[in-house]
Every structure is written in C-alpha cells, then in structure tokens.
Design a protein that fits this description.
The strands form 6 sheets. Strands 18, 20, 21, 22, 24 and 25 form a 6-stranded mixed sheet that branches. A hairpin with a 3-residue loop joins β15 and β16. The radius of gyration is 49 Å and the shape is elongated. The chain is built from 8 helices and 25 strands. It folds into 5 domains: 121 residues, Sandwich (Immunoglobulin-like), CATH 2.60.40.10; 102 residues, Immunoglobulin-like (Sandwich); 113 residues, Immunoglobulin-like; 33 residues; 102 residues, no CATH class. The chain is α+β, with helices and mostly antiparallel strands.
Length: 497
C-alpha cells in the first residue's frame, strides 16, 4: 500500500515539470543475484534552483537519508550509495525513485517534480516469467505489430513458451485470436513479444486484450488491459435528423476523433440536397480537437422556403494534421417538416393541457395565499375590536346615560349602542353632589370639549379593560374618528335635543 501511495504522489509531481529538467540516465536496472554494495549515479540539467530528495525513505538499503536542498541551477552529477543485501527484498521487480524538486520564485514554494527511477530485480530460484503490454498506442501509418514484453525472473532457463493473444472491441466482443510460438529465455532475459495483427481491417478505436504465456510443465503468466489504434481520421457518427421548414435550424453533429494527437482547423460544410440538387448550404465554426475527442460539433442550416419532405444532408468534415488537410464525407437522410408535425411541437401540445391546468392551480394558490395572509390580518383587527366591545358590555353595571330621570353619571360607555343622550363620565361612580346635574343642564350646557374631557376622566377603567387608548388628546380624536367618522360634532350633540 505504501508503494502505491509513493507511486501516485510521484505521478502527480511528475506531471508538469518533466519538460523543464533533464535526467541522464532517467532510470537504471539492478539485477540482484547476490548482495550488492555500490553506487548509482545520474546527471541533472536544470536552470532553476532545486532540491534533490530521496523519495522512498522506507527503503533500508539507501545509505543517503538526508535530502540535498537548494541546489544552484546548473548541470550536476549526483552519486548515491546503495547497500542491498540479497535477502532484504523478495523475488520480483521493485521500483524506487529519487526526486528532483524545483523551487519556485519564492524559496520554499514547491513546484512539480521529476524523478530518477531505480529498478531492482531479484530472481526466483525457479523458472519464472512475466508478460506485459510494452506499447499502448498505435497508428495505422506507423504500425509494426502489437508489442508485449516478456521477462525471465527466475534463475533457470526457459527453453520455449507458447503465447495466446485475444483481442476484443470496446464492448468486450472477441474479434481475433493470435498465437505466438515463443522463443528461448535465458537467465534474467528481457525480450519483446510481438503479435502481427492486421490493423487494415480494423477501424481506429480502443481495443481490449488478454494475453497468456505457457511455459514449463504447468506454469503460465497472464496479463490484460487495453490499447488504442489511432489514425488521422475523424468519424462523423450521427447528426440531427429532423428539421423544421421556414426557419434557421440548429443541429448537432456527433464526431469521434480516432487520432492520438491534436488536430487543428476542424470545420464542417453542410450540404442539403433533393434529387441531387442543392437547396441549402452552411458552414460550422472552426475548432481544434484533442486526441481521441468524442463530442458534438454545432451547426446551423437555413431552411427558409424549403418544402417539407425527405432530403440528403452531406457533412463534409475537414481537419489538418502536420500541415496536411484530411477529409471525412458522410451523408445522412433527414426529414424537413412543418412545425406542427415536429416532435417538440407535438410534445408541447400533448403537455399543453397539463400546462394550463398547472397555471390555473398556481393562480388559485396565489389567491388563497393572499386571502389567508390579508384576510387573517383583517380578522385579527375585527376580533380585537369585538373584544373591546365585549369588555365594555361586561361592565354594564357602570354604564348609565344621562336622561330626564337620572342625574347620576357612570364611569364608562358602550359606544356601539346609539345613546339616548351623550354619556357623561367621571373617575368615580358618580359626581360629587355639587357636580351633579340634570339632563336639561347637560343638554343645554355640555359642549364637545366637555364630552371629551369626561372621556379623559375614565383612563383607569379603559386601561383595566385593555382598551389601550391613552389619555392624550390625539388618541381620543383618533378614537372618535374611528367610531364617528361620518358624523359631525353637531350631529352627536343633536342627541341631547
């Protein structure tokens, strides 16, 4: 697991720096058949300052444990001491790295790195071989077979072996089975194993494989994976096949680059024909394609004054590689229809009822929301007013009206009832004897200010009944305006007459 982590970190660091530093040699292989005590040496060429770091500190046979920091940018040779006891590692192939870490403009700011690789191979004390793909990408114009590599990791000669290669398409369907009679592998040999696969009958694409080698009495080695067969070719896979007459239509052209490099000046010409006669023509924007690109190329075609019916649409795709222009021509049958016959229009009509039904539901929901929000708010005001009236009704024992037979005046009033006379209020249940008066006096002498001053005298009663009307003059004016907003002062005083 530790080795996997080291490898992933190494790949990340290696990604962007490899073009700015040179290593010579970039790797070495040490075949271990006894204890090894020696040196490894490599050269670094780099203009910027850098650090040299032993990457895998867990390897017990590296004597050099420290890193060399802030090396002045220049060509320099480095030597590391190795002490590898034969029994310190298991049989097989082991890989270790020494990393060259450049420094940024600000010292201490790490950038991407590159590494010197050391392969240590310890052989088995038996016949033992491995097989693996040696080249992952191929091109039709530069092809010399599918290349694998076989390695003898045992200390015994393999006189011969048989190899079988199965090739599949990307979906796993078997396409071909190839056989190889093999050859002799001496102690510690590493040799190429090449299968002659006929690529001329295969399109550029990604292919899967599995390969098996059989050696000795009952031994075998197995490997599987995928490889790419490329060509300077961009396939036109599919296009939009339905268009609407009398408008400019947008279309998608699905393309698939089968080349393992970038292509420039990629553009398409669209030609619509009926019975061999061109009725419309347009061009796509020019773009660049990355290696093995799959995606859509956008285009537009003008179908104004083009009648309904079936047409042939030719896609003339051009692209440039190393200054040479290539071309792909492909023709598709398409339908030009009226908008009322288009799938989009029919779907819109089919869903039209649902749309209007949903719109009605939305409007009703808005109305209900407004009713709930504003209606409840208005209802709370009405409820509050009713509570005031109810509280006033509950103190009827303290309510009296001035009339001809009663010269006592109460401390509160029910303003919702039309009084036979204007109520006269005081802080006590009735006036002192010297302030009592009869109805004739009230009718003849009480002014509007007298009436209001009597209301001011009942502030305590109003507060006790949660009327929340303060004793200042403005509040009473507001109170009167709410209950007698359509009445004039003289109309109220007319009740005394």
């Amino acid at each position: 697991m530790k080795r996997v982590i080291f490898f992933l970190i190494f790949v990340f660091l290696f990604s962007t720096f490899s073009n700015s530093v040179s290593l010579s040699p970039p790797k070495d292989t040490l075949v271990l058949d006894h204890d090894f005590n020696g040196k490894i040496k490599f050269m670094v060429g780099q203009l910027a300052n850098y650090d040299v770091i032993q990457f895998d500190f867990s390897a017990p046979f590296f004597k050099e444990k420290r890193k060399i920091v802030n090396v002045t940018g220049d060509t320099m040779f480095f030597t590391f001491d190795l002490n590898v006891p034969f029994d310190s590692i298991s049989p097989g192939e082991h890989k270790y790295h020494i990393v060259i870490q450049p420094l940024g403009k600000n010292q201490g700011m790490a950038q991407a790195a590159v590494a010197y690789s050391l392969f240590i191979i310890k052989h088995f004390n038996i016949q033992y071989m491995t097989v693996g793909l040696d080249q992952k990408q191929y091109t039709k114009n530069d092809y010399s077979g599918i290349k694998f590599k076989v390695i003898s990791l045992g200390n015994k000669t393999i006189n011969n072996f048989d190899a079988i290669l199965n090739i599949y398409d990307i979906d796993g369907n078997k396409l071909d089975t190839l056989k190889h009679e093999g050859f002799e592998l001496n102690l510690y040999d590493e040799k190429p194993l090449i299968f002659d696969w006929d690529v001329n009958k295969r399109r550029p694409d990604i292919y899967k494989y599995d390969v098996s080698v059989f050696y000795g009495e009952d031994k075998n080695s197995f490997s599987k994976g995928d490889f790419k067969l490329g060509d300077v070719f961009v396939d036109v896979v599919n296009i939009t096949n339905e268009f609407v007459t009398n408008i400019i239509n947008e279309m998608d052209v699905e393309i698939d680059s089968r080349w393992n490099g970038d292509l420039t000046n990629v553009r398409a010409n669209y030609i619509l024909k009926k019975n061999g006669k061109t009725v419309s023509e347009s061009n796509s924007p020019t773009i660049e394609l990355k290696s093995w690109f799959k995606g859509n190329l956008k285009g537009f075609i003008d179908l104004k004054n083009v009648l309904n019916g079936k047409y042939n649409l030719t896609v003339d795709l051009k692209y440039v590689y190393k200054g040479v222009e290539k071309q792909t021509l492909k023709t598709f049958e398409v339908n030009v229809i009226d908008i009322t016959e288009s799938i989009a229009y029919k779907n819109a009509n089919a869903n039209g009822g649902y749309f209007y039904f949903g719109l009605i539901i939305l409007i009703l929901a808005i109305i209900l929301f407004c009713y709930e929000f504003f209606g409840k708010k208005h209802k709370r005001h009405l409820t509050h007013s009713k509570k005031i009236i109810s509280n006033n009704k509950n103190i009827n024992n303290n309510i009296v009206y001035a009339n001809s037979s009663n010269n006592h005046i109460n401390t509160n009033i029910n303003l919702r009832q039309k009084p036979s006379g204007v109520p006269i209020l005081n802080k006590t249940n009735k006036f002192n004897n010297d302030k009592q008066f009869n109805i004739n006096t009230a009718k003849s002498k009480m002014s509007w200010n007298d009436i209001k001053s009597n209301f001011e005298s009942v502030n305590n009663v109003i507060n006790n009944n949660n009327n929340k009307i303060s004793s200042n003059s403005d509040d009473y004016d507001n109170y009167f305006n709410r209950h007698f907003k359509n009445a004039k002062k003289r109309d109220i005083l007319d009740d005394f007459k």
